[in-house]
Design a protein that fits this description.
mainly alpha; Dna Ligase, domain 1
């Protein structure tokens, strides 16, 4: 009798163990399903998820909901991994077929995809602000404030007229949620690195500060896109500065008028009242008329040594210029160019 009771208890224990094992395996299976089964359905290989600063878990869930095959498992996994209280803004690469664990690890740790910001030569701070707002979270208003507010620029030793001085055209890597002040800070750090002791020494040899060098380079950048001719044009302007002759640079007139599409500068245009009009003011303008490319800056630092103080666009419209030492020679060059303009009907 006792033997039968013992056998019964053993049988009960075996059944209990079996039930527990089955339950455990069921839980394990369901856990695997919640965390590792595919839950992102995009209909394409990949896309980007943008989570704005100060977003809540509900905001993220709303964005992800159309891309999830199971919203319920995403919520379970989010609670288990404590993502609901660890939402981080940024730009995230999500791939078709991602599971909840992979997705949430990326979001919770803030593993963003960097943004390559290609900065070119622009006329105005507004152009750069538009570029930043197009590719980063910071909006154009914030970027404009950073570049026009004297108080914000004071730590960099810049005035609003000089803000574009610090923007060296290049490709920069940012996180999408980088704020405007940090964007400008990084651009300025790269500007500071650019000015090596060798470059500073060359600027001093021409009697220029780094900011003056860039102001002159900005004029050259708008005079020509022919890199091989830039040092020659730089030599002309340095000669004029040395002789205290007005620079008389047409691009500064366009900047003063705010009309960058002008194809022909007329006498009436030269009368515009502006500190940027180098026909009416001696010396360099109070700031750059664009953020010049490195080639234009280095052209100033390595300016050609010659005696020319005039230059005029060639009449063949090749983009190159005729250079002259005397006004008589320059007038002859100008006459040929204006004749070519008239022939083409350029007004």
């Amino acid at each position: 009798m006792a033997s039968k009771k013992k056998k019964g208890r053993k049988r009960s224990l075996l059944w209990l163990l079996l039930i527990l094992m089955l339950a455990g395996s069921g839980l394990a299976a369901s856990g695997w399903w919640v965390f590792y089964s595919k839950n992102i359905e995009l209909g394409k290989a990949k896309e980007y998820l943008y989570i704005r600063s100060h977003s809540s878990f509900d905001d993220v869930e709303q964005q992800l909901s159309p891309k999830l095959s199971s919203l319920r498992t995403f919520r379970w996994a989010s609670r288990w991994m404590d993502y609901e209280t660890h939402v981080k803004s940024g730009k995230y690469l999500i791939r078709d077929g991602m599971g909840n664990r992979e997705l949430l690890n990326m979001l919770r740790l803030g593993k963003q995809e960097p943004v390559a910001l290609v900065v070119r030569s622009y006329n105005l701070p507004e152009d750069l602000a538009h570029l930043v707002s197009k590719h980063l979270e910071a909006d154009s208003t914030e970027m404009m404030q950073q570049m026009t507010d004297s108080t914000l620029l004071e730590p960099y030793g810049l005035s609003p007229n000089q803000a574009m001085t610090a923007i060296i055209p290049n490709t920069y890597e940012f996180l999408w949620n980088t704020p405007a002040d940090s964007v400008f800070a990084k651009l300025y750090r790269e500007f500071a690195k650019f000015w090596t002791p060798v470059r500073k020494a060359k600027a001093r040899q021409h009697g220029l500060s780094e900011l003056q060098c860039i102001a002159l380079a900005s004029i050259i950048a708008r005079e020509t896109n022919k890199v091989d001719e830039m040092p020659t044009i730089a030599g002309v302007y340095l000669n004029r500065l040395a002789k205290n002759i007005p620079l008389q640079a047409d691009p500064t007139v366009k900047f003063a008028m705010g009309n960058f599409a002008l194809r022909r500068i007329l006498n009436a245009h030269l009368e515009v009242e502006s500190p940027y009009n180098t026909y009416k003011n001696f010396g360099l303008p109070p700031g750059p008329i664009c953020n010049p490319p490195v080639a234009a800056i280095d052209a100033v630092l390595n300016a050609a040594n010659h005696q020319c103080i005039y230059f005029c666009a060639k009449e063949d419209f090749s983009g190159y210029h005729n250079f002259a030492k005397t006004l008589r020679e320059h007038n002859e060059n100008a006459k040929k160019f204006h004749k070519a303009l008239n022939k083409r009907g350029v007004r």
